[in-house]
Specification:
Elements lengths: L11 H20 L5 H28 L2 H23 L6 H25 L7 H32 L1 H9 L4 H4 L1 H21 L7 H8 L4 H33 L11
Length: about 260
């Protein structure tokens, strides 16, 4: 690496100066009476606590490189992502947490397997340098897509009950009766990812390419990795939204093909 491109190490005093940014934000919130003071303070505290813990944990796992520890961390991240998605969609839908966990798991495994086998081809498939950050960004995007699609589909099924039941009475199957709402929900879940792909590199530089540039990676190499990641996110989010839409649909119809609202 070119020494002139070496990453500038942040010292504790630098983080204190960074904390000043949030102090100013809190002051502006109080001044403008935005009622965001507590949210900003909570977000600041959680950011510091969570990232410091994760930093030490990743330092330990990267040093140990044990596949069991790596997979345990990824499973924990997957569980948190599923819970967060469930909280946004609704807590009263049966088996939703299981469907979310399975949907994000399947999409992540498929995406990472394809990327590992055909593209990156690391010496060890469980290399934490690749597996953990790629799994994290894929699951994070899949979580958001699942939450958006699931929330949209649940609201549509509840708001259009009479129309759906009319289609059922006219002989439509449950899949036919909700086909429009299912498509709209999946599209809604994918829109943020597609929009990001449309403007990546023009309006903003995503976190991955920014981090690589800060660490001194060749800009062309950083751009190549960002292209790969954007394609991974699109694929994983589509798979996740398809699966979660199927899972939610199953919870809204009984064995007699009647619409039931959990």
């Amino acid at each position: 690496m070119n020494p002139t491109l070496a990453l500038i190490a942040l010292q504790p005093v630098d983080l204190l100066w960074a904390l000043g940014l949030m102090a100013i934000a809190v002051g502006l919130s109080i001044w403008q009476q935005l009622d965001l003071t507590w949210s900003l303070l909570l977000a600041t505290g959680r950011t510091i606590l969570q990232l410091m813990i994760m930093g030490y944990l990743l330092w330990f796992i990267f040093d140990w490189k044990h596949p069991g520890a790596i997979l345990a961390l990824v499973a924990g991240m997957l569980t948190v992502a599923s819970i967060e998605s469930r909280n946004r969609i609704g807590k009263n839908i049966p088996y939703l947490i299981a469907w979310l966990w399975g949907s994000i798991f399947i999409s992540t495994v498929l995406t990472l397997s394809y990327t590992t086998v055909f593209i990156l081809q690391p010496d060890n498939w469980f290399d934490p340098q690749y597996l953990i950050p790629l799994a994290g960004i894929v699951m994070g995007n899949a979580m958001n897509g699942a939450a958006i699609a699931g929330e949209r589909l649940v609201k549509s099924l509840k708001a259009n009950r009479n129309e759906i039941e009319t289609h059922l009475c006219l002989g439509a199957s449950p899949q036919q009766a909700i086909a429009q709402y299912r498509r709209e929900a999946i599209r809604a879940g994918l829109i943020p990812t597609i929009n990001a792909m449309m403007v990546v590199g023009l309006v903003k530089l995503p976190g991955i390419i920014t981090g690589q540039l800060l660490s001194g990676v060749n800009p062309q190499e950083a751009a190549s990795y960002q292209i790969l990641i954007m394609f991974m996110l699109a694929f994983a989010t589509l798979i996740t939204t398809l699966l979660i839409a199927q899972g939610i649909y199953r919870q809204f119809f009984n064995s007699s093909a009647q619409l039931t609202l959990p």
